[in-house]
User: What shape does this take?
Amino acid sequence: MQSIGIFGGTFDPPHIGHLILAAEAQTQFHVDRLLWVLTSDPPHKKDRSITELQHRLAMVKLALVDAPGFELSTVDMDRPGPYYAVDTVKIIAHQNPEAKLIYLMGGDSLRDLPTWHDPAGFVTACHSIGVLRRPEDAVDLPALEMKIPGITEKVRFMKAPLLDIAAHDIRERIASNRPFRYYLPAQVYAYIQENCLYRNSENGSKSLQQ
Assistant: This one.
């Protein structure tokens, strides 16, 4: 049975931390295809503006150049919002009825899963949930199991380098003229420079605050 990893996000911008996490998941979970699901307007980020979709789409495409097994998925872009993870997983499952679906997330997302839209339905729709743990995540699986029965058997923890790289920090670095070149794939860095992203409110970069 084919195994498909689902890696969702706004990717604003996509950075090397994203690529390292995806590569580790691909290897450790024996993923045949890893889908990068670009979300156009995530419901949990209504408190901040996000770079225009055309720019984020272009950057993800550039980040995935020469990345075997990585694919851009437009499942969220091809439908109207709101863009809930449970719906994304169900659509991908419908498109790939014979595949096992592994949803990738960080430990902070796992901790906050009870606040997601239909968390029980989300857990049921996933064959497994791949989680990158960090020391500060403080994930309490027994407590989560009380709130979302069945989640414990779905969670698979992943070992990966603890890289302190975040998209919001990269945006802030660019805005304040601090070094950011080596946090990004070369093609993404060049695209940001060419389009003057994250430096001001023009050219599609709206807000630098998360």
User: Anything to note?
Assistant: The radius of gyration is 17 Å. Helices lie at 16-28, 53-63, 85-95, 107-111, 119-125, 141-147, 167-175, 186-195. The longest strand covers residues 3-9. Residues 114 and 147 are 7 Å apart (CA to CA).
